[in-house]
Design a protein that fits this description.
mainly alpha; about 0% strand
Length: about 230
């Protein structure tokens, strides 16, 4: 504790700052990789594709043959989830016809005959009865719940994968930097694999990503704690 109060605080703050910079750089590299065919942005879209395929007969009419690419483009561009779900739901409703109503009813878990009757009335301009509005409302509710679950799991998978890729990138960068420093000092890389320097580099790489968002607060809290101890010691 005496060493900490006598100057080690600055070293700890420097370590936190270096780790935070490494984590930020790793996140930046992962983000830049999105320029190559979407990179990690593609992760998670599989949930959305699987959730919407049962509604393909309607989506094919509402969004054309490229309906899946339309949804994928919005996902890659990072459009708000609410807008993406509204787009998918709108395409399903737009492509819902009396011809595909039975198929969509199976995917939407509503009565096929009731849905087909309601859609036929819409196409003919016939006033809808309460039972027609009910079946359409149930279909909307099922579609909404399906999309909510799909986008929720997709977003979770993307965030976890992005953090994992950033952590791996930070680890690789730290190990390479440690090797360069070790080589500059000893002019040999043979001993690096068995040195304490490698362990330190690995530790820096491991903590870089999780510590990056809170490094400033940690350093500030540490400084406050040390000052409090100094005051208490008089």
């Amino acid at each position: 504790m005496t060493d900490l109060l006598n100057g080690e605080l600055e070293n700890i703050a420097n370590v936190l700052g270096a780790a935070a910079a490494l984590g930020t750089a790793a996140f930046g590299l992962v983000d830049v990789s999105k320029a190559f065919w979407g990179g990690p942005s593609n992760i998670g879209f599989g949930y959305i594709a699987r959730a919407t395929r049962p509604f393909a007969p309607a989506l094919l009419i509402g969004g054309g043959e490229e309906w899946l690419q339309t949804l994928r483009a919005q996902w890659l561009n990072g459009a708000p989830a609410a807008d993406q779900k509204a787009k998918a739901k709108g395409l399903i409703r737009l492509g819902l016809t009396s011809e595909n109503a039975a198929e969509i009813a199976v995917a939407g878990r509503v009565d096929p005959q009731a849905l087909q009757t309601a859609v036929t009335k819409i196409e003919r301009g016939t006033p809808l009865k309460e039972e027609d509005l009910n079946v359409l409302g149930r279909l909307d509710a099922v579609v909404e719940a399906t999309l909510d679950a799909a986008f929720g799991r997709a977003d979770q998978q993307y965030r976890n994968a992005a953090k994992g890729l950033a952590a791996l990138t930070a680890l690789v960068l730290a190990v390479i930097a440690g090797a360069m420093i070790f080589d500059a000092q000893t002019h040999t890389l043979v001993g690096y694999l068995a040195s304490r320097d490698l362990l330190i580099a690995v530790m820096m790489g491991v903590i870089a990503v999780p510590i990056a968002p809170v490094a400033k607060d940690l350093a500030s809290s540490l400084a406050t704690a040390v000052n409090a101890v100094r005051v208490a010691k008089g």
